[in-house]
Design goal:
- There is one protein chain.
- The protein is built from eleven helices and no strands.
- It is an all-alpha fold.
- The longest helix is centred in the last third of the chain and has 19 residues.
- It is elongated, with a radius of gyration of 20 Å.
Length: 221
Amino acid sequence: MSLIRFFALSCCLTLTVGCFPDPASLPTRPPMDEDATPVSEERFWEPIDAAVATGIRDKDKLRAKLVEELSEWSEDDLKGFKLQYIEQFNKLNRTDIRTVFDVINRVAEYEAFFAHRDFLIAQGSERMKQVLDDPESLLDDVQKNSLYIDETDFYMAGDSVIAKRTGNPADGLSVKMEFTEDPSGEPIDLEDETAFKQRFPRLAEFVERRNRMDAKQIFGQ
């Protein structure tokens, strides 16, 4: 289940709790592990990079490969993997990265940015570092026509490992998932055209080129 659909379902369950059968008849989740800690960044990226190195492009097959890479991990390490995923996911929530994505996307859409961060992590540590160092490299995804790819749900890979071990699809990892909503960093004034061009030269060129193409299609000039 995707992150967005997961949160939407959570809201629906909250609103319709009165329609549920006796709670005792429902599958139970393990108690929240408040003491779980993230694995190191190096350990986190090893199975992801191994899965990416296979060259698999199909998101479901890629996720299955990650589950395979994690199959020998202990439950504590799987919890640590999930927590480190959240840290990496939040690290991408920066104003400069968000600005580039929104301008390319033509609209500030939190759900799309949410999904694309999951996709970026699924491309491996090198791609992650590239975007953190150079947010304008998101333009590369436009050229590859992969800006709007659906989520890979890598954050649930450890849960899939546990479910396979127990044979119960309801089993998983109970850790505290704290996603940051507001991006870090100073706000960026898109109305200041000079400052925008200085900070994002590639993006500014992309926007100008796109505007010319739009004008040609609309006005024939």
